[in-house]
Each structure stands twice: as structure tokens, then as C-alpha cells.
């Protein structure tokens, strides 16, 4: 009966190879998910002084204060989010049934506007002068318009729009959009392949957009870019990643400053945010996140650490 005696010996011979393959696979996954960069930033966060923390967003101080559902959008797949300081409301867009949706910070829907001619709206942003901008990822364009009271639908053919290029990007084009009032530029985030941040000069209501300019490459800690927002106080940038389930703060030089994970059990989240698609921030420092199909989250900075940031 030689076979039973050989099995333990064969198992012992195969065990080191299996462990090596497992370790190699873990390293590859860690590299692709940027675990090394995240651990490095986590270590650096421990030595940041109070003044520096108070001068930025400092995500580790944030906790979930509201989680709710945007009623009636279950089949519409929300994507993209912006805070409009002129109305004190939020706007999102939906991709399955293209529409623009306005709702309160408590998650109460105020109105839904049909988007005719749009193929895949992925991002929306308030420009601060009464205009809104929407990115259509599949059509690779940016539409800009004034939203008048009582409007029930918008037709892309009647709106001012700009070609963003990357015609071969398919469904991996621009997913994030943010307005920087200090530089009067739009910040656009390309999801992946290649992943990157781009700046678009956007002078005035009657002026043409400038040339899309790639920002210097930085280790962004994430596998994809789902949405971006700019803190109106500090000028720092928020990056949202669906695949990495991370929210990352970038400083004025575009370098990661802090981050939080969006998994359950952390920062007040019970179940975690399974598919985060939009992030926005108001002048009080509240952070809003939207996830497919229609989940809405609000994070606030915990009491005890005042904000000292001012616009750059």
C-alpha cells in the first residue's frame, strides 16, 4: 500500500510552492490596489500636527451622520454629485434613465429633469454663477447651461457643449467633475486606462473653454476615479474611488494628505458603500456621497477640532 504513504510527502513538497504562489498573488493584488501607498500615507498621518490637520479637510476626523435612500430612483442608477451654494441643494444625474435630480441635504427629492439626447451622464457640477455642467461619459462631452425654474426637460442639442476628446475611451472616460472658483478651472477625473486628473480653463459664460491639460502624475492610492470635489475653504481636492472603496484628500500640490475607507464598520458605516459614484462638499465642511443605485450618505467632522482653512 505505497500510495497512502506518498501523499503526505507529496503534500509537503507542494506546500512551499503553494505558499510562494499565494504570497506572489497577494503582492500583485496589493500592488494593484495600492496597499503600499495607503500604508505609507497611514504612517505619515500619525506625524501630522494639529495645525496642519485643521488647515485641510482631514478625513480621519469624519463620521457618518446620515444614511438614507433617494426615493424613486431605484431603477435609475445615480452617478455624480454636486453641492449648489446658490440654492443650498444637491444635484445628481442618473445613467439608466438620463435625468438631472435636485434634492435636499436630508435626501428629499425636489425635482427630476429629463435629459434628452444624453447617452451616459456621469458627473454634474455647479459652477457658482448659476450654471450647471454635466459630463456625458459615452459621448465624451461637457454640457453647460442655466437651469431655469419649472424646467422639466433639457435637450442636449440646445445646450452649449464641448468635446473632451478621448474618443476611444468607451465607458472608461471622464467620470468626475469639480469647479475651482479660485482658478476658474474645471477639474476632470478620467476613470482609468489611463487614470488621471485634467484641468480645463473655463473663462466666462460667453467664452470658449480652453485646452484640456493633464495634471502632473501623483500616486493617487486608488484603482479608479469615480468622482472629485473641491473643498471651498482649503482648496483641497476629494477623490472618490468605487473599486478601492476609498475617499482621498489631495493637498494644493496634488499630493495625498489623508484618506478613509468606505467599508462597513469604519467611520460610522455599518454596511459600507458598495458602489460609490459621487462626492460633494459644502462650505461648512460636510461631505456628501452618493452610491448606486440610490443610496445617500452624509459625513461630518466630529466636534472638538475647529476648521481653520481659508481659500488659497
From TrEMBL:
Transmembrane segments: none annotated. The keyword Membrane applies. One of its GO terms (cellular component) is plasma membrane. SUPFAM superfamilies: Thermostable phytase (3-phytase). InterPro entries: 6-blade_b-propeller_TolB-like, YjiK/CarP. Signal peptide: none annotated. Coiled coil: none annotated. Its main location: membrane. This is Uncharacterized protein YjiK. The keyword Signal does not apply. Belongs to the YjiK family. It is found in: Cell membrane. Keywords: Cell membrane, Membrane.
